[in-house]
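User: Could you go from structure to sequence for me? I need the amino acid at each position, not a summary. Structure tokens:
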């Protein structure tokens, strides 16, 4: 059994989703067009909604595969 190999595989699965989520978080911290302080991603600006949509696609896609 190789714990290192298993952990690397998990990281490969999670990395795209985490990266998409981080992009949305970082945008929200800098955005002055509605994303900062928004209670929902849908309340943010167009860019913020696109970044959130990309994250959701990653999450949903991984869940189905
Ligand atoms: Zn925004």
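Assistant: Here is the amino acid at each position, in order:
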């Amino acid at each position: 059994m190789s714990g290192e190999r298993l952990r690397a595989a998990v990281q490969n699965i999670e990395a795209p989703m985490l990266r998409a989520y981080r992009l949305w978080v970082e945008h929200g911290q800098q955005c002055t067009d509605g994303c900062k302080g928004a209670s929902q991603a849908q309340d943010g600006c167009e860019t913020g909604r696109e970044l959130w949509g990309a994250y959701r696609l990653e999450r949903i896609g991984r869940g189905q595969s």
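One structural detail worth keeping in mind: The two ends are 24 Å apart (CA to CA).
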